[in-house]
Amino acid sequence: MNRAATTKGQAEAGVLLPELPDDLRRQEPHAAVVEGQPVISILARERQALNRANARQGRTVKFYDDLTARYGSRRP
User: Fold this and answer.
1) For residue 74, what are the CA distances in angstroms to 2, 49, 52, 61, 68?
2) Closest CA to 30 of 38, 13, 42, 16
3) DSSP, residue by residue, 30-71
4) What are the tens digits of pLDDT across the range 61-76?
């Protein structure tokens, strides 16, 4: 009975998750389009922005995977 009460208390207390790193909340803006600039340079900057966004998404997935490995997944 004592073990059941302890388990119930831990379940009701919940899990205190770590804070999401600020970097993972940031949105990546599109490259600025400046009139007269070559289209290829705009495209190159846009691709750099996409690479940064994809890297951030990868860090987000790693952060989530670390959480589920540490605390378990509640998904069926």
Assistant:
1) 25, 34, 30, 16, 9
2) 42
3) PPPP-TTS-HHHHHHHHHHHHHHHHHHHHHHHHHHHHHHHHH
4) 999 899 888 887 665 5
In sequence order, what are the residues at sequence separation of 6 or more whose Cβ sits closer than 8 angstroms to the Cβ of residue 69?
none
The residue type of 65 is D
Residue type, 57: Q
33's CB contacts (< 8 A; 6+ apart) are: 42
pTM as predicted: 0.65
